[in-house]
Amino acid sequence: MTKTQTDYLIVGQGLAGSTLAWALLQAGKSVLVMDKYEFQSSSKVAAGIYNPVTGRKFVKTWLADTIFPFLENHYQQLETSLQAHFFHPIHSYRPFPNANIQRYFAEPETHENFRYFGTVVSDLPMYKNVVANELGGIVTQHSGWVDLPVLLEAFQRYFQKNNLLLSDSFDWAACQLADNTYTTATQVINFEKVIFCEGFLAHQNPWFNWLPFSPVKGEVLTVRFDEPIALQHIINQGAFVVPLTHHTARLGATYSWHQLDWTPTPTAQEELIDKYKKLMKPSISVLNHLAGVRPATKDRRPFLGLHPTYGQVGIFNGLGSKGVSLAPYFAQHFVDFLVNQKELDPEVNINRFTSLYLGHEK
Ligand SMILES: Cc1cc2nc3c(=O)[nH]c(=O)nc-3n(C[C@H](O)[C@H](O)[C@H](O)COP(=O)(O)OP(=O)(O)OC[C@H]3O[C@@H](n4cnc5c(N)ncnc54)[C@H](O)[C@@H]3O)c2cc1C
């Protein structure tokens, strides 16, 4: 048996685990990331969009002013460090769905509020035969998408090359909190803290299954345009269309709180194509169809923090449908708490649910 010492054992090499491990390494800590890739990963299905103006009401997303400048820097630097190309900044175009939203964006206060993020345009003539946009719309800057499978592979290569990857699935019986060890067939790992980043599967974790997750199934299509189109924006209204090449695009995504599995369904495909037809004019065919489950939470805020009883056990999860925007900022925020003893933002600290833990223990 070999003995290994690490500051942090990170369980899960999805977007959350990878980003947190990276932030800990930058802070000078040692990490060991554990994943056998035998479970489904939401990150491998996601379209990877980040967009500061979201929702049916076109609102600036939570903490947009803080997290968007942060994420752009983060992914740009990461491309250099990991020597891979996964960051695709591209403006978004959102046609106005109705006259109320159109009027709202005509008000000077709205312009002021959105100045950093968007420009109201009455029309984009280049999309005359492409997008249904009779009322004009808003072009959002500081948006784009991250190719998460490429990013995760680059992280995996980096962790492997530096002997920071343990190819295993976490087994609770092998973990002893009395002496902070995790024992495999060949080694005993001594850790200062173990941090769980299991995405949707956190509901199976006996230390954190009391947290109020509210997982949401989502489905996305890769589609082919019958005729090539030079889309210069992500088109987003009801559904999103992310241009991949002049011939192909990603079309998504659905939201369902039922049948939480990774199986693509004909109903979701129909729903997406219906929405596409309301938004876009060119005809398409479907090339690929994927489904996944977003690790969302009841109060729509991430879960960061340490277990109420076992201070050496932590969680970084609950990124919901906005992992790409939230992960970089909150991984750094968590590291500031873990390493530099800064306070966690009460909105994300899992201690907001301690009463659920106490109830669950009774
Ligand atoms: C259809 C769809 C579209 C989406 N679109 C977007 C989008 O456009 N923009 C956006 O920001 N977000 C999007 N998301 C959400 C995004 O995918 C998530 O926010 C994010 O990827 C969650 O990352 P995670 O690391 O928490 O979880 P995951 O990616 O699920 O990773 C969890 C990892 O933990 C591992 N694991 C679990 N249990 C164990 C164990 N016991 N031992 C070892 N390893 C374990 C798994 O193997 C996996 O690798 C979308 C999601 C879906 C489903």
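qc> The longest strand covers residues 284-294.
qc> done
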